[in-house]
Amino acid sequence: MLILGIDTSCDDTSASVVEDGRRIVSNIVSSQSDIHAKYGGIVPELASRRHIEMIIPVVDEALKKAGVPLREIAAVAVCHGPGLIGSLLIGCSFAKALCYSAKVPLVAVNHLEGHILSPFLAAPVPEFPFLSLVVSGGHTSLYAGEGFGNYHELGRTRDDAAGEAYDKVSKLLGLGYPGGPVIDRLAQKGDGRAIDFPRAYLPETYDFSFSGLKTAVLNFLRSRSGNNMPDAATLDEGMIGNIAASFQTAVVDVLVRKTEWAIRKKRIKRVALSGGVAANNELRKRMKQMGAERDVEVFIPPAVLCTDNAAMIATAGYHHFIDGELAGPGLNPRAYLPL
Ligand code: KG4
Ligand code: ZN
Prior knowledge:
The chain is α/β, with parallel strands linked by helices.
């Protein structure tokens, strides 16, 4: 059974054809990074306008690459939140019009469920129950996944998401947007123990906090500039590498330790990682190490399936579709949409 997934929740326009919720037949992601890079973050209005331009070519390409005509698609799964409302509107309006005109069923998918289920697009797939750590630009949450459609949030960030902290630190360092990939790369040349940035472990909770870490990087830059302004231009390459690596070590220490605690508390010996920050090399390595030491299975999809993509939306949509959960022309996107 083929599902066409569509995701326009943030700054990527994506469409994908997935078979039986597991096999990717095509997955097209049109990135807007070049548009937003010079602003150091996403400009919502520019994101919506770009989605309008890209949605038809991206869906067309996904169907063409899959070699599948629209009449062979069993259902269209569209992400209806959470995300940027203007961006979500484009995907939802497009999907509703397409389904109405082509008489194809429509399914609505929560973006976070897409991330949680993205490990099902790789091999081996996790069995339920598993702990799911979703670490992206908008979210950092731990869930207990009990079954398809059955996820219980254990905790979440109380302020910035981990990816948001990467993006803000990158902006402070003059490294542009998105910050994750560039900090990931520069950190490989730096010393992760060079600067002792704070870690908010928030003991006995499943919650996270990253805004203090971001402020610590800001204060560090201020203290070095001599004029109390965070001036990255005065830093040499070695120092930038050390800041990137030390910041990243602090983020990864917290994510790994919190996951370890959740494993012990919940007695669940399977962990799945997803969201853009799960593309991070250090996090992937350290989480796998932790898994090997504690005899815990760790599932991390390939990096392209960690960042936003429509294949994960098609996968989640497949399970809703076979359960008969359809959406109609009244479907409206929601910027805040709990799982
Ligand atoms: O899941 P995603 O594509 O979009 C959201 O749903 O937010 O995640 C985007 C976030 C950005 O903050 C980006 O900087 C971060 O993921 N990211 C990374 C890496 N690649 C993307 N963070 C750390 N290391 C990476 N390699
Ligand atoms: Zn996402």
